[in-house]
Amino acid sequence: MSSGKSLQPTKYAQQRYNITAPVDFDVAVKYGGALMAIAGADGELAEKEFQWYVDEQELLMVDSQEYIETLRKFDWKNAKIEELLNGIKYDFPLNFRRTMLYQAIKMSSADGVYQEKEKAAVAKAAEILGIERSMVISIESLAEMENASERLRLSLFETNV
Questions:
Q1: Can you tell me the distance from the alpha carbon of 117 to that of 128, in angstroms, rounded to the nearest whole number?
Q2: Distances in Å between the alpha carbon of 110 and those of 6, 10, 50?
Q3: pTM value?
Q4: Phi and psi at residue 67, to the nearest 5°
Q5: Is 80 exceeded by the pLDDT of residue 133?
Q6: Alpha-helix runs per DSSP H in the chain
Q7: How high does pLDDT run on average in the chain?
Q8: Residue 88: per-residue pLDDT
Q9: Per-residue pLDDT for 160 more than 90?
Q10: In sequence order, what are the residues at sequence separation of 6 or more whose Cβ sits closer than 8 angstroms to the Cβ of residue 46?
Q11: Are 8 and 62 in contact (CB under 8 A)?
C-alpha cells in the first residue's frame, strides 16, 4: 500500500536521468533499500557509501530529508533484494534497471573499494532484473571511467586528489 507521498525531481534529475515526474515515496524507499542491501553485501554499509547516495538524492530530489531519514532507519542487512525489486515502476522514460545497477556500482565503490561480494550482489540484482552480463560489464566500465575522469579533473585543477 502506498503512503501517497512523492518526491519531486529537480531540473538536474531531468537532465541526468530523464526523471520527469514525481517519484512515489514508497517505491523510492524500495529502490534505495535495494541499493543499500547491494552496497552492504560485504557486511558493511560504509558511511562513504551511504553518503554518496544521500548526496545523489540531494541533487536529484527537492526536499529529500524525510526520504533520507527513512533510509537511515531501513534494515538493509535483512532486506531481500528480490522482494524490494518487485513492483518498482516509474511513470517516466527511465531504464531504472540499468540506472539502479549504475547507482549500486557507484555507491558500492564510494568507499574506494568495489568488493567482490558487492560485485556478486550487483550480478544477482542484474539477474533478477533481466540484465545481461555484458551490460553489467559496460555499466561497471562507465562507473570506472567516471571515477578516473573525476580524479583527472581534480588533478588538472591542482585540487587534492
A1: 16
A2: 27, 23, 8
A3: 0.90
A4: -60, -45
A5: yes
A6: 11-17, 25-39, 47-60, 65-72, 81-85, 96-108, 116-129, 133-156
A7: 92
A8: 81
A9: no
A10: 39, 110, 111
A11: yes
Which residues neighbour 24 within 8 Å (Cβ) at sequence distance 6 or greater? Answer: 2, 5, 6
Look at residue 99 in the predicted model and tell me its pLDDT. 92
Terminal-residue alpha carbon distance, the chain: 46
φ, ψ (nearest 5 deg) of residue 152: -60, -45
8 Å CB contact between 72 and 53:
no
| 6-27: average pLDDT | 92
Strand (E) or helix (H) holding 7: strand 6-9
pLDDT-derived band at 111, boundaries 50, 70, 90: very high
